[in-house]
Every structure is written in structure tokens, then in C-alpha cells.
Amino acid sequence: MAQSLYMHLLVVEHNTLLCERLQKLFEADGAHVVCSATVEEGLACLSEQAFDACVIEHALPAMDGMQMLVRLRERGDYTPIILLSYEVGAQFRVQGFDAGADGVLIHPFEEAELAARVRSLVRRNHGHCR
């Protein structure tokens, strides 16, 4: 059973149905979730408030999730980030980690695994490692 932990999460996903599904998934864990459809919206959210973690889709319109990740790290934002992608090669995952991602999950992924990874990142970031 998952340990209850308050989380303030940002999900950057342009697919409305997937974003709503992820929002419900995280809210079932007790999280407050903000959804954003574009990189620019996501960057604005992160400039306005602090989040415990972010889940960012790589395949976003205009600017992709990897570019968003690089921008965040360049401006000194070290919010824990899990990058979601349809790119199946190890090279993409390595690029994601080298760019500063804390996790990379490939579609299709198990929602329970994503939720567990987010909880783990938040616990670690809050100093509650168990």
C-alpha cells in the first residue's frame, strides 16, 4: 500500500484525455494536480509556483518536453521531472537523464509504476526516504 504523502504536481501533456487520466491517478494518491497543455504554459506555472514534481510529455506542440527540461535546468529549476515519451531507444532515455530528467518512461507505461516513481521522487526530495 502506498504511503500517503501530500504532493503538488504539474502535468504537461497536450492530449486532454491522457492529462485527465493522469490527474485522476495522482489525485487518487492525494495530490493536487495542475495540468498544462504546452511548454510555455508549463514554464509559466513553474515560474509562478513551486511543485513537488512534474510529469512532462516529450511530444508536445511547438517545443518538446526535452527542450522544456533543458530550459528548466538552465534557469536553475531542479524540480524532480519524469519525462514521458514514445521514443523507445536507449539513446533517448540517456539523453533525457543527461538533460536532467529524474526518470524517463516510455509509452505505453503502467500507471501504477508512474505513480510510484512520482511518490518516490517526492519522498526523496522531502527527505522522507523509506
Describe the structure.
The protein is built from five helices and five strands, in the order βαβαβαβαβα. Helix 1 (16-28) links the parallel strand 1 and strand 2 (32-36). 45% of the residues lie in helices and 18% in strands. The longest helix has 15 residues, at 111-125. The protein starts with 7 loop residues before the first strand and ends in a 5-residue tail after the last helix. With 130 residues, it is of the alpha/beta class.
Draw up the topology in text.
Elements: E1 8-12, H1 16-28, E2 32-36, H2 39-48, E3 53-57, H3 65-74, E4 81-85, H4 90-99, E5 103-106, H5 111-125
Parallel strand pairs: 1-2, 1-3, 3-4, 4-5
Global structural class = alpha/beta
Mean pLDDT: 93
Global geometry: globular
Unreliable stretches (pLDDT < 50, length at least 5) are none
Tally of DSSP β-strands: 5
> Terminal Cα separation, in Å?
13 Å
DSSP helix fraction: 40-55%
The helix-strand sequence is EHEHEHEHEH
Largest sheet: 5 strands, parallel
Strand coverage percent: 15-25%
Strand order within the widest beta sheet: 2-1-3-4-5
Number of helices: 5
Radius of gyration: 13 Å
